[in-house]
Amino acid sequence: MIVIAHLSDIHLDGSDEPRARLRRITSYLAEFSRPVDVIVVTGDLADHGLEKEYAEVAEELQSDIPVLMLPGNHDSSVPLRAGLTAYVDSPGDGHPVHQVREVAGARFVLVDSTVPEEDHGLLSDESLAWLDGVLREPFDGPVFVAMHHPPLSMHHPVMDQWLLLSQERVEAVLEGKAVTAILTGHVHNPIVTSFAGHPVLGAPGIRSTVPFPFEPAPPNGIVDTTAPPGLALHIHTPGEPLQTVYRFP
Ligand SMILES: [Fe+2]
Ligand SMILES: [Fe+2]
Question: How many structural domains compose the chain?
Fold first, then answer.
């Protein structure tokens, strides 16, 4: 059995509140009698992509458990690579920060869905070719594709400003491939849906939650920074369907 702790959108910026919200999650994980096998953080690690913010990310996520990270639209490739050398293993020296990592018998294809200086997501022709090639490699075990931008519309006036573009091209690459699940962040909501025939499992936003317009309005605007931070636990048992639970410790 493999247990994956899936965190997202920590948005560390040197201030107390995001740090305290992340610590609610990390201290919860530290209490497990059977530690999770891997922690995956699906982007928006730093709030402004600054060097000092990555130093904080590196310090706050220090763990005996392997920690995998990928960039979100708030991140910046060069300072991310420089500040997170202990966590990120990606060829090249700038954008994109793609990675293939194997932990606990599982393969994690960590896709950089960001566009420098933009908030929407997009995979270039080169990125799509890379993803296609990686997913064609035989692997005996679960394969998780992780990326910041989920391949969907939230039908939300705010979140839909920053969609993953050209979703049909991503769909063509993912369709028919052996993918256990697609792990995403960005929309600051725990989401469960499907794409290209695969489950899409989005982690809650640790920094905040963005409710739908039809939900009760948060006390402080569109973004709810009072909703509890949360995470997903993905539990993979060989021969069984993936199970996911969401926790808001
Ligand atoms: Fe975010
Ligand atoms: Fe984001």
Answer: 1
Å from CA of 47 to ligand 2 middle: 9
Residues lining ligand 2 (ion), CB within 5 A?
44, 72-73, 186
pLDDT value at residue 221: 85
Cα–Cα distance, 211 to 209 (Å, whole number): 6
Domain of 155 in residue numbering reads as 2-247
Tokens of 248: 């808001």
Contact 21, 207 (CB under 8 A): yes
CA of 67 relative to ligand 1 center, distance in Å = 19
pLDDT score, position 162: 96
Omega of the bond leading into 96 within 30 degrees of 0 (cis): yes
**Residue ranges, the chain, pLDDT below 70:** none
In the reported structure, the alpha carbon of residue 44 is separated from the centroid of ligand 1 by a whole-number distance in angstroms of: 5
Give the per-residue pLDDT at 157.
Answer: 87
* CATH number for 134: 3.60.21.10
- CA 171 / ligand 2 centre spacing (Å): 20
